[in-house]
Specification:
Elements: H1 3-30, E1 37-38, E2 43-45, E3 51-53, E4 63-68, H2 73-89, E5 93-97, H3 103-113, E6 120-123, H4 128-132, E7 140-144, E8 149-155, H5 160-170
Parallel strand pairs: 4-5, 5-6
Antiparallel strand pairs: 1-8, 2-3, 4-7, 7-8
Length: 171
């Protein structure tokens, strides 16, 4: 390749990159953050068989909702990053175990993995609760304010710093 062809290729790549970055910059100037939307209610069975409705918290206090898989490392991290800080801030955590294991098997595996215990633990054996929130794959963490409005969502891992920021926003 001679010098002029290399220069032309370089200029084309440079122009494409410049167009991309300018488009991104312009879009971020004009697109506002998405407004909070009402959080869908989910109703699920706890380990003792009693039913729990997420909307029980609406109008009272914010809540952190975590969908997790037992064997997924990021799920274990999300639980570990959210639950201790939520307890410290007084924010209830509802965790939904998305697994085809039985309730007893899931509880035993959680103890084995030394996962922190949420305020409410639901078991979504059929996947209906995960489907309501379009969880695929876990972990997914949702932060819902006291008015039942979905403030933010993390699809995948969440850092301790991000978890603390979101929890403070709904505390």
């Amino acid at each position: 390749m001679n010098g002029s062809k290399m220069m032309r290729t370089f200029l084309v790549v440079l122009v494409v990159a410049l167009i991309f970055y300018l488009t991104f910059f312009i879009l971020t100037l004009f697109i506002k953050d998405q407004e909070p939307a009402p959080a869908p209610d989910i109703i699920g069975a706890q380990a003792d068989g009693t039913l729990y409705s997420l909307s029980e918290n609406f109008g009272k206090q914010g809540v952190a909702l975590i969908f997790f898989e037992l064997e997924h490392r990021h799920s274990q991290d999300a639980m570990g990053n959210i639950i201790p800080k939520a307890k410290e801030l007084g924010v209830p955590v509802v965790a939904v175990c998305v697994s085809d294991l039985s309730v007893e098997q899931s509880q035993a595996r959680m103890k084995e993995l030394k996962m922190p215990t949420p305020d409410v633990l639901l078991f979504d054996v059929e996947g209906t609760m995960a489907e309501t929130y379009r969880v695929d794959p876990p972990p997914c963490s949702y932060f819902i304010d006291k008015n039942g409005m979905l403030r933010d969502a993390y699809l995948g891992p969440i850092s301790e710093k991000s978890a603390e920021k979101e929890l403070k926003g709904i505390a």
